[in-house]
Write a structure and sequence with these properties.
This protein is α/β, with parallel strands linked by helices and 340 residues long. Helices cover 34% and strands 16% of the residues.
Length: 340
């Protein structure tokens, strides 16, 4: 499963995102942590000591783009991952390599499969569709603090052509937009953890009305805003959605505030049969459509009024993208995009 990408907070960046909804950190992460602690009390303690020293030395690397290891991006498993659903990337407008971009990725869904497959693996031909553009996807900063898992995440970053993961923090995104040249496209799953709680087939609800930190960041760096929408993302799992005001919803929201992700109650298909229930996603087509860039000037200290202006422009561009393409990719004419 891909690491979930997380959301941008409404008042400014913090170490949260993408990814959103459910934590996507693999189950092996707690296991590796326990193993490293266990080794401290054995004759193999130098392994833990050396790794701890390495983590301390390497602590800031995620904030600076990670490390290059192109072989992971070329894994054939990503092509199989793409074809399982399948996942497709659609371009509507060119992106000039002479600018930097913040790509808003919607909706979050349960696992952000569309964002992961298109902006990280390269299996859908991003580099061919957008030559000269290096895409990155932001994810929970906490994912880069997990033993060994952090090495896996960073090894996929800054490859050539660059497709990588970075923490959804002001420092990390600012580095990519100001110290990495032009032609960078940082994808942020704006709705994040909270949005995944409203993920259900046939209903498209985006948490965006008060999420303005990404717009402020774009203005400060003169990065153009690009809306994108993954049609079919909400169809991969069936989720038990608890009503607002219920005690279970309150538990989810409290957990989200404390941990940065929300515990979702969902199910997919089983391992042996599509008719059984399990935790594999259903094989449903996902089409990610990348829209027209919103031109953004560089203003180091944008006022709230200016942020609101460009936030409104972004929302209108996203609504147009959704309405122009919904009937092409599985939705009906009557389906609406709700922004809360």
């Amino acid at each position: 499963m891909p690491p979930c990408a997380h959301c941008w907070p409404c008042r400014g960046p913090r170490s949260e995102m993408s990814v959103p909804g459910c934590s996507s950190s693999p189950c092996s992460s707690p296991v590796t942590l326990v193993l490293l602690v266990y080794l401290v009390f054995t004759r193999f303690w130098p392994i833990s000591a050396l790794y701890l020293a390495w983590v301390i030395f390497d602590w800031d690397t995620p904030e600076k783009g990670g490390r290059r290891l192109p072989c992971l991006r070329r894994w054939s498993v990503w092509r199989h991952f793409r074809d399982y659903f399948p996942v497709k990337l659609v371009k509507t407008h060119d992106l000039s390599p002479g600018h930097n971009y913040i790509i808003g990725s919607h909706p979050h869904g349960i696992l952000c499969v569309g964002a992961f497959c298109n902006f990280i693996t390269g299996s859908t031909g991003f580099s061919e569709l957008f030559p000269g553009i290096r895409p990155f996807l932001t994810t929970l900063a906490g994912n880069f603090r997990l033993p060994l898992f952090r090495e896996y995440l960073m090894s996929g970053a800054r490859v050539a052509p660059a497709i990588g993961l970075c923490p959804v923090t002001r420092r990390a995104i600012g580095h990519l937009l100001s110290k990495n040249g032009t032609g960078n496209a940082v994808a942020i799953v704006i709705g994040g953890a909270a949005e995944s709680l409203s993920c259900s087939p046939g209903v498209t609800t985006l948490i965006l009305k008060n999420r303005k930190g990404f717009v402020r960041m774009a203005l400060q760096h003169g990065a153009f805003l690009v809306p994108s929408f993954s049609f079919g993302e909400n169809e991969l799992f069936r989720q038990v959605v608890f009503e607002e005001g219920s005690w279970m919803r309150a538990v989810q929201q409290r957990f989200q505030k404390m941990m940065g992700f929300a515990p979702c109650v969902f199910y997919g298909r089983g391992l042996t049969s599509v008719r059984s229930r399990g935790f594999l996603p259903y094989a449903r087509p996902i089409t990610t459509v990348v829209g027209e860039p919103v031109t953004v000037p560089k203003i180091e200290e944008p006022s709230s009024e200016v942020v609101d202006l460009y936030h409104g422009m972004y929302v209108r561009s996203l609504l147009k993208l959704f309405n122009d393409n919904k009937t092409k990719y599985g939705l009906s004419e009557g389906d609406e995009l709700r922004i809360v």
